[in-house]
Design goal:
Helix content is 77%, strand content 0%. It is mostly helical. Helix 6 (109-119) packs across helix 12 (242-256) and helix 9 (166-183) runs antiparallel to helix 11 (201-229).
């Protein structure tokens, strides 16, 4: 904004939040209608109404508010919101991540990696093995839906050949996919959470791993107990190529040791091009086409990011953020209360949008204001945004993850919920981690 705008004090104005209400009615309302009341044949109900259309209408509503500002002034406010350094970096990473995802899928890397890991895991431990594989594949791929699409057919084969519970096998794949999506350095949720809060990915990873890893370990212990109780299972034979699988392991290693995400993605693309050419799974034309289609697959996410940045800038200017902060201040009086506010806001946005990346992009600017008000470290805010959105996305039966898994497995998405062990365990750890912030508050008061 110009100096004359920025110098004015922004007052509390709940009406500035109307654009979000309009979005919820358009997207959530129509999603419920087309999913459960009048199902759209051959389409998932929550994808009948485009999220881009819903946010476009919301942006129009935001423009119609606050007549004290001219149209040109509102355009300038939107431009500054879109032009934020972190938003621009996020858009560039989305493009590169799309190219990486496209070339990796076309080269056969994901299926080869999954089959390689499953081939070395004893049949008795097939169920915990599926969870471990989903965790690793999702961390390497950076996409939970992609992981679920690759591993669910394998989980179905394991359940059928080993006479195991189909819902359990598919459920642990979904849980592992959300673990990796939450921690992956190239996941769009990680990119959105870190860049909107202005923190390094490795700092968010270190904060996140303290919550996610114990939850994953407890989940794994439970699955190992199940494996010991059950008799051995013949899960069958799976074909794989070490050459196709190797790039994923290298990308995962480079990410964990803290190499810049742009460099990691570029190296990953080059490695998969080489692996695809060596194994014959790629040609020059298919390599180019797959990278192009992967980048195209990110366009909707990028457009949503631009629209939400514009809406958020207008809502903030109109006093919407102040209204939310005022509400939280009435309910919370400590750092812990602020963290609960961020967690609840993110979870609510995910339930409303059925998309964890979109939920983060919407909640992020408000969460940043909350973190500044209650002195929550940016890395913890980023961790809460990513973790809480992934928890809800891994649980809601109308989210893409459960709908894709249920569709491939031929079961109802609701039937998978009791077997989503990891997301529920992670929820407990998130709540415990926030409650654990009480000692920090007390220490601060004592120091005063």
């Amino acid at each position: 904004m110009s100096n004359d705008m920025s110098n004015e004090r922004i007052s509390t104005n709940p009406k500035a939040l109307v654009p979000i209400g309009v979005f919820l009615v358009l997207y959530l309302g129509n999603g419920i209608f087309f999913e459960y009341i009048k199902p759209a044949e051959g389409r998932m109900g929550f994808y009948v109404v485009s999220v881009v259309l819903a946010f476009s209408v919301s942006l129009i509503v935001a423009f119609l508010q606050n007549r004290k500002r001219s149209f040109d002034e509102k355009i300038h406010i939107c431009a500054e919101g879109i032009g934020d350094d972190n938003i621009v970096i996020m858009l560039f990473i989305f493009l590169l991540a799309g190219a990486f995802s496209g070339i990796a899928g076309e080269a056969g890397g994901a299926s080869s990696t999954a089959n390689l890991l499953l081939s070395v895991i004893p049949g008795r431990f097939a169920v915990p093995g599926l969870f471990l594989i989903a965790c690793l594949i999702s961390m390497a791929m950076g996409t939970s839906v992609g992981t679920i699409s690759v591993l669910t057919p394998i989980a179905c084969a394991v359940a059928r050949n080993g006479s195991l519970s189909l819902s359990l096998c598919v459920g642990v794949v979904v849980g592992g996919a959300m673990f990796g999506d939450n921690l992956s350095f190239i996941s769009d949720t990680t990119i959105a959470a870190t860049k909107t809060q202005g923190v390094e990915m490795r700092d968010k990873f270190r904060t996140n791993i303290r919550i996610a890893l114990p939850a994953a370990v407890i989940t794994m212990i439970g699955l190992l107990v199940y494996a010991f109780v059950k008799s051995g299972a013949d899960v069958g034979e799976f074909d794989y190529s070490i050459v196709q699988a190797l790039p994923y392991f290298l990308v995962l290693l480079l990410s964990i040791i803290g190499i810049n995400v742009f460099i990691v993605l570029l190296i990953g693309i080059i490695l998969f091009v080489g692996a695809g050419i060596i194994t014959g799974s790629l040609t020059y034309s298919t390599a180019l086409a797959s990278m192009g289609s992967g980048m195209s697959g990110m366009f909707e996410t990028m457009i949503v990011t631009i629209l939400v940045a514009s809406i958020a800038a207008l809502m903030k200017e109109n006093g919407g953020f102040e209204a939310i902060l005022s509400l939280i201040k009435r309910k919370a009086d400590s750092k812990r209360g602020g963290m609960f506010g961020i967690a609840f806001l993110t979870a609510f946005m995910d339930v409303a949008t059925a998309n964890n990346t979109v939920a983060i992009v919407i909640a992020a600017p408000i969460a940043k204001s909350i973190s500044e008000e209650y002195h929550v470290e940016p890395r913890k805010t980023a961790s809460l945004l990513d973790t809480c959105s992934c928890i809800m996305q891994g649980i809601i039966p109308y989210g893409a993850q459960l709908l894709v898994a249920a569709g491939i497995a031929g079961v109802a998405s609701f039937s998978l919920i009791p077997f989503l062990i990891y997301p529920f365990v992670l929820l407990v750890f998130v709540i415990a981690s926030i409650i654990g912030e009480k000692s920090t508050d007390d220490a601060g008061k004592g120091a005063e």
